[in-house]
Amino acid sequence: MPAIWCACGEKLDYSLIPNPIEWLAIGDVAYDAYAGQVDAEALHREMKSIFECPACGRLAAFWEGFGKPPKFYAPE
Ligand SMILES: [Zn+2]
Predict the structure, then answer these.
(1) I want to staple 68 with a disulfide (CB 3.0 to 4.6 A). Which of 2, 34, 46, 64 is the partner?
(2) What is d(CA 20, CA 55) in angstroms, rounded to the nearest whole number?
(3) What domain of life does the native source organism fall in (predicted)?
């Protein structure tokens, strides 16, 4: 089961579909290409997956896809 570990020790499972801890983000310029379209699959492929740790609130962003390690961000 694909998962990563948060620095707080929480396991972040990214195999669930849909995933309750996953957020999908898209750059504003990339999003503009979808104006007037409703192609959910194409839009989903363009989005970046960001997981929110339910224990500490850190974000793990897969900016370069799931083939590269995520970048973590901690709340202040
Ligand atoms: Zn955490």
Answers:
(1) 64
(2) 13
(3) Bacteria
Average pLDDT, stretch 7-31?
Answer: 91
Cα 19 to ligand 1 centroid, rounded to whole Å: 16
pLDDT of residue 39: 80
Instruction: At 18, list the tokens.
Output: 């849909």
Q: What is the pLDDT of residue 1?
A: 64
Cα–Cα distance for residue pair 14/21, rounded to 1 Å: 8
59, 52 in Cβ contact below 8 A? yes
Ligand 1 centroid–CA 40 distance in Å is 30
| Residue position matching structure tokens 């900016």 | 63
Are 70 and 4 spatial neighbours (Cβ–Cβ below 8 Å)?
A: yes
Specify burial of residue 16 (Cβ count, 10 A radius: 0-12, 13-18, 19+).
exposed
